[in-house]
């Protein structure tokens, strides 16, 4: 996203391998973290009015993988898509799909972006 120059922060979201025969437990260790750039497009999607029944999906192009465990090094080199899912709250989750059909998911996370309008506390009355 060369034109999206507002990304100044990233959020790091843990993702877990999704295996049908083995559900993710609360004490599971993440396979890796997805660092999502808070670009203008991502922030605009987060600010959309989403109904209780809706989920918005954003296909990400500005991301990085961090703290990849040795078991998943090969998987992250063959990524088909990285998706950010948004629902009312706002809540967000990430899904990573590899070319060999492995999927990694994050739990739903509460997310409330904070905006700095450049006003000091003294300026507001």
Q: Which keywords apply here?
A:
mainly beta, eight-stranded antiparallel beta sheet, 125 residues, 1 helix, single chain
Question: What is the structure about, briefly put?
Answer:
The chain has 125 residues and is mainly beta.
User: Biggest sheet: strands, sense, closure?
Assistant: 8 strands, antiparallel
Give the uncertain stretches in residue-range form. Answer: 1-5
Structural class: mainly beta
Query: What separation lies between the terminal Cα atoms?
Result: 39 Å
Shape: globular
Q: Count of DSSP helices?
A: 1
Q: What average pLDDT do the residues reach?
A: 81
Oligomer: single chain
Count of DSSP strands: 8
Rg calc: 16 Å
Helix content estimate: under 10%
Which band does the percent of strand residues land in? 35-45%
Return the string of H and E elements.
EEHEEEEEE
Describe the structure.
- The structure is a single chain.
- With 125 residues, this protein is mostly beta strands.
- It is built from 1 helix and 8 strands, in the order E-E-H-E-E-E-E-E-E.
- Strands 1, 2, 3, 4, 5, 6, 7 and 8 form an 8-stranded antiparallel sheet that branches.
- A hairpin with a 4-residue loop joins strand 6 (91-98) and strand 7 (103-105).
- The longest helix is centred in the middle third of the chain and has 7 residues, at 40-46.
- It is globular and about 40 Å long.
- The chain starts with 9 loop residues before the first strand and ends in a 15-residue tail after the last strand.
